[in-house]
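INTERNAL TRANSFER SHEET
From: sequence group
To: structure group
Subject: Cephalosporin-C deacetylase

Please process the attached sequence and return the structure record in the designated field. Keep the field labels unchanged so the import script can parse them.
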Amino acid sequence: MPLFDKPLPELREYRPERDEQPDFDDFWSRTLAEAAEFPLDPEFTPYDAALSLVDVYDVRFSGWGGHRIAGWFLAPAGATAPLPTVVHYIGYGGGRGFPHDWLATAVAGFATFVMDTRGQGSNGTPGDTPDPVGGQNAQTPGFMTRGILDPADYYYRRVFTDGVRAVDAALTHPLVDPSRLVIGGGSQGGGIATAVAGLRPGLAGAMIDVPFLTGYRRATEIVETQPYYEIARYLSIHRGYEDRVFRTLSYFDGMNFAARATAPALYSVALMDTTCPPSTVFGSFNHYAGPKEIRVWPYNKHEGGQTFQTREQLHWLRDIAKGA
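Return from structure group:
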């Protein structure tokens, strides 16, 4: 796939107008307040992962609606003092997988909290968290149109709230240093991380790789790949719902969360990415309100930097670990 989006010099300056509803902040304040009515009830149960250098715990906590969300918690074996911590969010369709899938930050000396994504985990890595709530509208296969006619019903209202609650659950563990907690994820995980960065103050950093869930309208109009194509396919059948659909999506657009985020951020973008187009990533990055850096992978698709980006992150995280 050749370069198909804006040239890199234009991308670096690309700052599109945000579609933001007047009650955006009130919507999310009410959402998080409703979620806070349910106790977190975090559980950390020792788990035999056959990893002698890492202590592993099966995690459960209450997310949106009090629904129990699964996860993992990993820490260097025998650690007793509070540690810098990374809360990880997962890409589209994937689940929490197995503890050995999440070793990079744990062996770098970080406590590592992995949030399962409700309703997902049957495409790639396995998951353990159902989504007990269904949208009231007909939907395409996947998650992008579940509840899409009303922001109160939309699937990602629950997922983003779970993401905020995952930070709160991680902070209950005695090995987590609250002053050195970083969030991160790629693709859908990057979209969740962007939302949490805009909703949850007090973070030490955010690692946002090739983020999904940002610039919905542009992405839907310039690529014909999943998952954004789920929106186009829905609208191709449900003609006349365009305004209603994009109004709902405006409450979940990464650009609007980025404009409210203040924690230092490390982004990545791939210039041949036809899943999350580079202009949508730069739209989020250029609106991000906090200190920020971006790593550009010119010849990559949605895989982005992969292990090269992990190396970038580990070096970036060293300053977090030092409390810098």
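Handover comment: The chain is about 35% helix and 20% strand. The CA atoms of residues 91 and 188 lie 4 Å apart.
Transfer complete.
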